[in-house]
Amino acid sequence: MKFIDEATIRVFAGDGGNGIASFRREKYEPMGGPNGGDGGRGGSIHVESDENINTLVDFRFVKNYRAKRGENGRSAECYGAKGADLILRVPVGTVITEKQSGEVLADFEIHGERRIIANGGKGGLGNVHFKSSTNRAPRQCTQGEPGEEFELYLELKVLADVGLLGMPNAGKSSLIRSISAAKPKVADYPFTTLQPNLGVVRVDNERSFVVADIPGLIEGAADGHGLGHQFLRHLDRTKLLLHLIDIAPFDESVDPAKEADAIVNELKKYSMDLFNKPRWLVLNKIDLTSKVDQIQNEIKNKMQWSGKIFCISAINGKGCRELTFEIMKHIEDSKEDD
User: Fold this and answer.
1) 162-337 has which fold?
2) Where are the annotated coiled coils located (predicted)?
């Protein structure tokens, strides 16, 4: 199934049913009083999060969603039936925004959350409501109110504790394969990863965290180069970013520090909130070079880096276990601070 993480749809809640004007006409009551019933309320549009759904692909092909209209009132003071509600199911992590105003209507972070997005219209009043001592035979009734309608923008942001960031072929997919049971595609060409991958990293039987691997960024992503910024939204909910740097690129003329700076600049262009998240440098492919210390010092100096830095080999697992323990400790400490 193709991974779809955004969609635009229109939702139409049901209109309320109309009230009616009618009078009792029976054998022994040939000129009875008013008995027109009210119209039923229109159906509402509900949205519910479901952990069994992974993408927004269903909303890519069906654009309009309508709830049922309420039934009209009937004589003998019979009220019209309420229109059936419509329930839309979305993946956990979906944010729903009203497209015209930009207002966030719902943000689903746990399974089973439900929100009313569009309310059905109220039913109209029958003429029974208008009788009085001076108006014994009212002929007025009201129409049902229209239901709410909105154009919605649905955006899926995966729920992960840690996000992997870096150039194509930096080793992000190799790292997630090394530390979790996830098996994303790994190959020796750029943009092997075309959609986000999630992996659960178990430190021990009772402690684990979720890591997200997104397609690599390149310089100029803000202008649409490569895959652009379209997947950076999936890092918005993370508590920590791991910036992977390939210190042994195939092209020896490539400067790892310069590429790392390019990624940082793209991150800043996309979102200052994301740029200000805790971020660690992870130098990958230390098994392919004997100048690890020299390269590490060059990167720290050129980037003026004072934060945490780790050296690993994602392909053989060297340094990965120590990295996962540090990540777990950071996540636990951040939860205590919250």
Assistant:
1) Rossmann fold (3.40.50)
2) none
Class of the CATH-defined domain 6-156: mainly beta
pLDDT in tens, 220-259: 544 554 444 566 777 888 889 998 888 888 777 778 888 8
Question: How do beta strands 162-166 and 207-213 pair?
Answer: parallel
Token reading at 298: 């060059």
DSSP type of residue 233 = G
Residue 49, exposed/middle/buried by CB under 10 A (0-12, 13-18, 19+)?
A: buried
Could you tell me which residues are annotated as the binding site for GTP? 166-173, 191-195, 213-216, 284-287, 313-315
Residue list, annotated binding site for Mg(2+) = 173, 193
Contacts of 156 (CB under 8 A, 6+ apart): 4, 5, 6, 55, 56, 90, 91, 93, 94, 95, 234
